[in-house]
Amino acid sequence: MMTKPENNEADNHSAAIHDVMFDFCGVLLELNYRPCFEGHFPEAIIDQVCSDRDVYGFFAAEARMDAGEDFAVVIKDVEKEYGDKAATMFRYYIEHYDDALPKTIDGMEMLLNDLRKAGYGVWGLTNWSAETFHFAFEKFPQLENLLQGTVVSGVEKMHKPNADIFNLALTRFGLNAARTVFFDDTQANVDGAKAVGIKGIHFSDATQARKALQGLGVNI
């Protein structure tokens, strides 16, 4: 059974951290549309799909799935609004989602390992479709082994940055918000964590995350 670090009142207040939660894409895993499409669709169209302008509505469609909507419903709307070409590409993307997950973020497996070895709770909280999340653990089973539990927005039909999904994670994992740190690469989600009393930190890389935890008294 995992033993969590004792709260030593002689230490600073940050030493009371017991648990660390992590977002997935942009924190634990890289997400990149381009490797999924290259060799299968024209480069000019790939450039448009991968543009921040969301020319074909991929970001919006995926966000709907992350919030719990079924692919079968979303794909009809993509086809209606953006046409057959966009719908074909979005379908291909969903069916080959693992190709858009090239690797884990450098240094993050080691950080999770170090946290587990030091006795801290390590958890996942992600905005991800219930229909594609399986790719994450199938391609990177080490993450499933390192994380002690993961809340997936598409399964729960609630999503960050709303308070309900953070409160669900706290309840399900038996966490104390004030003794929990949450890392996300999206500031709105960091702010959502803070709103329910969790110590939210905007993620940039593994070195920054490790230093931030050490600054809070986490002994790694």
In words, what does this structure look like?
There is one protein chain. This protein is α/β, with parallel strands linked by helices. The protein folds into 2 domains: 13-30 and 104-215, HAD superfamily/HAD-like (Rossmann fold, 3-Layer(aba) Sandwich), CATH 3.40.50; 33-100, no CATH class. It contains 12 helices and 5 strands. The protein has helices at residues 33-37, 43-49, 58-66, 71-82, 84-95, 108-117, 134-139, 141-146, 153-156, 163-173, 187-195, 206-215, and strands at 19-22, 121-126, 150-152, 180-184, 199-202. Strands 3-2-1-4-5 form a 5-stranded parallel sheet, sandwiched between helices. Helix 11 links the parallel strand 4 and strand 5 (199-202). The longest helix has 12 residues, at 71-82. The chain is globular.
